[in-house]
Amino acid sequence: MTEGVDRLTTGLIHHPYTAPAEFDALPPGVFKASSVFFPSVAALRERRWDDKSGYTYGLHGTPTTFTLEARLATLEGANHVLLAPSGLSAITLVDMALLSAGDEVLLPDNVYGPSRSFATHELKQWGIACRLYDPMEPASLFAALTPQTKLVWLEAPGSVTLEFPDLRALVREARAQAPQAVVALDNTWGAGIAFNAFDLGDGLAVDVTVHALTKYPSGGADVLMGSVACRDDALYRRLAWCHSRLGLGVGANDVEALLRGLPSLALRYAAQDAAGRRIAAWCQRRAEFVRVLHPALPDSPGHAHWAELCSAAAGLVTVEFDPQFSAAQVDAFVDALRLFRIGWSWGGPVSLAVPYQSKAMRALATPYRGTLVRLCIGLEAVEDLVGDLGQALAVVQGTIS
Ligand SMILES: *Cc1c(COP(=O)(O)O)cnc(C)c1O
User: Fold this and answer.
1) Ligand 1 centre from 179 Cα, in Å?
2) Which bin fits 214, alpha (ψ -120 to 50), beta or left (φ > 0)?
3) For 149-178, what is each residue's pLDDT tens digit?
């Protein structure tokens, strides 16, 4: 390069223009940076990464990430929020921050599957024991708690099978039997809308919540992100130091997508809730299904606990096929769906379906004998979705001679 062009580049990098500061509009700016500049060496030495009144390094926060953290804290009724690259990494952050060799972690048998995998692989390898309890039997949690229990995971409702536990009773057992244990809730289903995990009533609360922001808060099926929220300052510091040492960061464009999704979160949740209930009611009238699992249905497991705590439900419906339908026939049903797409996750605009074999998912006994299909209701018209389910059932009925 000629000297002139070199100089031009230097001039473009160290450009004197600064845009006027007062830009008043709804979207917060999308700030991207690895390096954050300090006016002097003294200022660099003085600034602490865990003091959120300023900035040290892109990984430790930008105006964009701080803004999302503050809004999520409001959503969740928490004082502190940390962002992680996925819902799963938010879960594993809590595990790694709070557990050491010799400790025990308790998981509900219907926990989000990859959370259990992390416990039975990495945590086990690091000398941390994992015990499973039946979340629908508080006595089962009671029996599993020991002086070594340092972390109790809750999930409401359970993954795929959607049983709604008595969260208050579980928290009460944990507080009474293992006061040394942190109680953490995977609050992805509730999304900060269905109930307040930091105020369960009767003075009961969880210590930590985790969200897959990937689901409802994003709402776009285009972002992977997770959050960890808590109220207690000391607990936040334990989580934040581990978060920092692990080097967990999120991209500003993804944060921007989340900030864009939050204002419509409650509206989308309500719409998907209403659609989910109508589809659950329709499924209940179909002879192909022996059980429809949805916490708002009176005969769904844990309905009374849901009704006591929640005013809303996420748009998830799981149907259990009559065992006369083989797993292959249920697969054919899912393959025949046209609007429902086949895929993981939920909370986006498109409806999704996935078949599950309940026996393969649970360590403890399950009442489910038929193949399960989890339906995640998107934003399509309910009439269209019901029409799609009906035509796919007709296809499968046609295969029965
Ligand atoms: C999806 C999900 C997660 C994981 O979120 P990712 O962002 O996909 O890693 C964790 N818990 C629950 C209950 C989920 O549904």
Assistant:
1) 28
2) alpha
3) 999 999 999 989 999 999 999 999 999 999
